[in-house]
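Thread title: Can someone regenerate the structure for this chain?

I was given the following input by a collaborator and told the matching structure tokens would be attached. They weren't. Posting the sequence so someone can regenerate them.
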Amino acid sequence: MIGANKLRDGAGSAARTVIIVASCVFVLVPLAFMLGSSLMPAMDIMRMPYRWIPETWKPANYLRALAGNDGSWMYLRNILNSVIVSTTIAASTVLLSSLVGYGLAKFRFKGRDAVFMAIMGTMMIPFETVMIPLYLIVVKAGMQNTYAGLIVPFLMNAFGVFIMRQYLITFPDEMLDAARIDGCSEPRIFWDIVFRNSGPAAATLAVLSFRQQWDNLLWPLLVAQEEKMKTIPAYIVKFTAEKHADEGAMMAVAVIASLPVFIMFFSLSKYFLGGSAVYQAGKE
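Best answer:
Regenerated them for you:
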């Protein structure tokens, strides 16, 4: 009996190891292909069998990626646009969602649950159904081809409210009551006690919001008609659609576009993973 249990445990451990290794390969192989191809001439990328280590190194692909096929160096401006838009939206989402989540988690008022359910209900509405009315509002407000037009519609979202509320439900009420007894105002309680101790959830939400807006293609295509106001996804679509763009430069464009997301994730990975655990605990 003991031998059978050990055999089952060994088989289960081996199966988990195989699944983990297969998952890592599934994720890392495309990244390795992208990085290696970004340093190859176009003809080497299409050669079979594929060589993972370039025979001929071509770092000039990165210069061409930044300069563009027309030599305008517009990619640098598009990178700046994406950084401004994604960072601003991530910061506003964290702050505003924390405020709303705190109110819904720690204040009792009539209709609180109805308000929360109404906010959650907006998550069921596809963006495509409100995209055209939202675009018309932006045009009427004169925000087309501006940072305001790219940022304002996404300053906060229901998913952020959900994450922060679920996290703050578990926040000790005793700390808040003690602060009120000491004479702290509600804004100070929120900023000095609640928000400063919500790092894991806030970091998780910041990473998710930043990545979502960094990859956002549809809305910038509608709002940003001028080349100087386009973001990275729009530049990638334009660059890859041009007939004289080679595959090595395309891969270099993709590598450059991926770097800020990787940098932000790994710089906040400690809080990101911790926030995931807290988020799951909050759901329960």
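Residues 69-283 form a domain with the MetI-like fold fold (CATH 1.10.3720.10).
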